[in-house]
Amino acid sequence: MSELYAVRRGRLRDRCAAAGSAASLVSRPANVRYLAGGAPPGAVLLLGPDEDILICPGTPGPDPAEGRPDEQLRITVLPEPGGDTVVAAARAAAAAGAESLAVEETHLTVARHRALGSVAPRLRLGDLSGAVEQLRIVKDEEEIASLRIAAEITDQALGELLESILVGRTERHLALELERRLVDHGADGTAFPTSVATGPNAGLGRHRPSDRRVEEGDFLSVCLGANYRGYRCEIGRTFVIGTTPADWQIELYEVVFAAQRAGREALVPGAEYREVDRAARHVLAAAGHGEGLAPKTGHGVGLEIEEDPQLAPAAMGKLDACVPVTVEPGVHLPGRGGVRIDDTLVVRPDADGGPELLTITTKELLAL
What we know:
elongated; about 20% strand
């Protein structure tokens, strides 16, 4: 693993050198973990002219959710509590003779940016401009393996819930049970707050669970995901509670399912991001559901639950192989409810079987 992190840091160092920066300072936690293997709270990573240093406000602990720092890295712990790791990194870069330092401007507060200039006035500051995020888009097979395990855990948790009695239980109760099951099956935690929506709430994106109780005939939509070794997946499914689905429920479900299938089939290397969105969106619009749709059909996943690429109407760029994304179209009918179907997949060429589906819980419209 140490070699892997060194290669990643080398790629960033090459990009920075090409842009004229002798050193770079990474402060965004997901980016620190990607390059250093671990990201203790408040830690920053300095890629200096001579060596790379992980600067921490305190001694890194054993929490698996934080990862394990690369053994090749020099780890520096601030001598006094309350110190600023960003300021310490700027001082270290200046002391090492760096004349320029690329930082993650969008992550730093104005106060911290000013502090950098005050402690190292001769250090010319530049912007990393999302360089690490761009490196993170294409995943290696070890990253994909972690995502695959996260998806297996998520499928297990959801599958167990479907075997329990649901009528009369609240959205909030079901969400808490799903999150407990994720951890029971080996997750380090949840990938994002679990959403459970029933009746008129069903189909709403990122609905916050309420005290509404599940009733016979309801649509029930759930969206959840596991965090495993820092990697996060997402699944969303919609079911009908207790009875044979009504005609309008079957019709709406079939439309959303067709849109989701169209989006999944569009996931090929070289496809434009916006074309994937258009494939799903066209199906919904043709069925009369073009108004009020979510601003995007899906997004990348990895060390964050929502990262590049964005599968949206105006998104620029093309898919590469080994890019994990979600495809998650949905329709919500005010006062009635709706349907969301959400999978995590990895873009693969046709020669390798096409997109790899990580979340495999059935998409059949079940009556629970």
